[in-house]
Amino acid sequence: MKLHGYFRSSASYRVRIALNLKGLRAEHLPHHLRKGEQCAPAYLALNPQGFVPTLESDAGDILTQSLAIIEWLEETHPTPPLLPKDPLRRAKVRAFSMALACDTHPVQNLKVLARLRQLGLPEEAVTEWAAWANREGLTASEKLVAGEAGPFCFGAAPTMADLCLVPQLANARRFGVDVSAFPRLLQAEAAAKALPAFADAAPERQIDAE
Ligand SMILES: N[C@@H](CCC(=O)N[C@@H](CS)C(=O)NCC(=O)O)C(=O)O
Q1: Residues 16, 48: one domain?
Q2: Are 83 and 32 in contact (CB under 8 A)?
Q3: Separation of 16 CA from ligand 1 center, angstroms?
Q4: How far is residue 50 from each of residues 5, 44, 90, 179, measured CA to CA in Å?
Q5: Is the CB of residue 97 below 6 angstroms from any atom belonging to ligand 1?
Q6: Which structural domain, as residue segments, surrounds residue 29?
Q7: Would you state the pLDDT for residue 38?
Q8: How far is 134 from 128, CA to CA, in rounded Å?
Q9: Where are the alpha helices (H) located in the chain, listed in sequence order?
C-alpha cells in the first residue's frame, strides 16, 4: 500500500494510526501542502479534491477521505476492531468521529484559512477563527464522551474516535487553544499516546517532518 500524506496533516495522521493499529505497512509518499504540492496535476488525478490523504491499495485501487479509508481498512482487516460490534455503540463512535472530522477540522484546514487571508482577514483573526472552530468541536466532543468508561474515548480500547481526537488536539494546541478545559479528552489522548501505534504516527516521527 501507498499512503499519500503530509506529516502535519491531521487527516493523514488518522489513517497512519489506523494502519499502525492494524499492523499494516504502507509506503509513505509526502506532499508538501504549504508548497501546494497537493494541487499538482499528477496528484489531482488521484485525489480531485486536492487533499491528503490518499491511499493506494496493493491492487492499485485509489481511496480518498480519511474516514472512508479507515472504514475500508476496518472492513478488510477487522482485527483489532476500530468500531464496536453493537450497532448503537458504532453509531456513537461514528458520531464523535464526525463531530471532529466533518464539522471541526474542515473549517480550520489550510484551504479555508488561505481563503480567509485572501478575503483580507488579518492573521490574528485567521488564527482566532481556527481556535474557535477547535474550541467549539472539542467542547461538544468532551460532552459526547462524558458518561463513557475510559481511558479511551469509548472504553478500554482505542476506536475510530481516538484516531480523530489525537490529531485534532494537536491542531487545537497549534492554534493556541487551552485544552485543559477538556479533561476527559486529555485522559483518552494520554492513553492513546502511550501506544506505539499512536506514537509512531505522530507528525514529528514522519519522514517529511520539519
Ligand atoms: N475530509 C478530508 C479532509 C482532508 C483535508 O482537509 N486534508 C488537508 C490536510 S489535513 C489538506 O489536504 N489540505 C490541503 C489544503 O487545504 O489545500 C479527509 O478526512 O480526508
Answers
A1: yes
A2: no
A3: 14
A4: 11, 6, 30, 30
A5: no
A6: 2-79
A7: 96
A8: 10
A9: 10-21, 41-46, 66-76, 87-101, 110-118, 123-144, 160-174, 183-193, 196-199
Residue type, 30: P
* Per-residue pLDDT in tens (0 to 9) along the chain, 210 residues: 999 999 999 999 999 999 999 999 999 999 999 999 999 999 999 999 999 999 999 999 999 999 999 999 999 999 999 999 999 999 999 999 999 999 999 999 999 999 999 999 999 999 999 999 999 999 999 999 999 999 999 999 999 999 999 999 999 999 999 999 999 999 999 999 999 999 999 999 999 999
Measured from the CA of 8, which atom of ligand 1 is nearest?
Answer: 10
Predicted pLDDT of residue 105: 98
Residue type, 111: K
Distance 142 CA to ligand 1 centre (A): 23
Contact 36, 12 (CB under 8 A): no
Q: Is 210 within a domain?
A: no
Is 131 among the domain residues?
Answer: yes
Please give the pLDDT value at position 138.
98
| Dist. CA 26 → ligand 1 center (Å) | 19
Output the nine-digit C-alpha cell for 42. 499528477
Q: Which of 132, 121, 114 is nearest to 33 (CA)?
A: 114
Asked whether residue 202 is assigned to any structural domain, the reply reads no
Q: Is 108 in the pocket of ligand 1 (CB under 6 A)?
A: no
